[in-house]
Q: What sequence folds into this?
């Protein structure tokens, strides 16, 4: 797992992956993973319309076509646990605990 740049924020994580900025936002009951899209005009950044949602130990793809459960979400959850241990734990203990609880 190698990212060019990683930011641990108050409410999530951001990292550069293959030239795109990916955000992992943490809320009370779910984790959302999406590409952050920036425009040349001054409207600010937006999140992509296709997102991965982690909730109740399951992963879903959410798009304009609805929310659909992924058949095997264990790999996604495993990678998020690894990112949480290696990158978040030492930088933001509160966020680390929040992510840990949502992934268990």
A:
């Amino acid at each position: 797992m190698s990212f060019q740049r990683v930011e641990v924020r108050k409410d999530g994580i951001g990292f550069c992956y293959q030239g795109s900025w990916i955000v992992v936002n943490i809320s009370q009951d779910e984790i959302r993973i999406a590409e952050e899209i920036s425009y040349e005009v001054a409207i600010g950044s937006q999140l992509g319309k296709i997102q991965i949602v982690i909730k109740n130990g399951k992963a879903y793809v959410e798009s304009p076509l609805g929310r659909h459960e992924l058949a095997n979400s264990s790999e996604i959850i495993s990678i998020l646990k690894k990112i949480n241990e290696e990158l978040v734990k030492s930088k933001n203990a509160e966020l680390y605990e929040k992510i840990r609880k949502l992934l268990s």
About this structure: The chain has a mean pLDDT of 90. DSSP finds two helices and eight strands in the chain. The chain has one domain: 6-103.
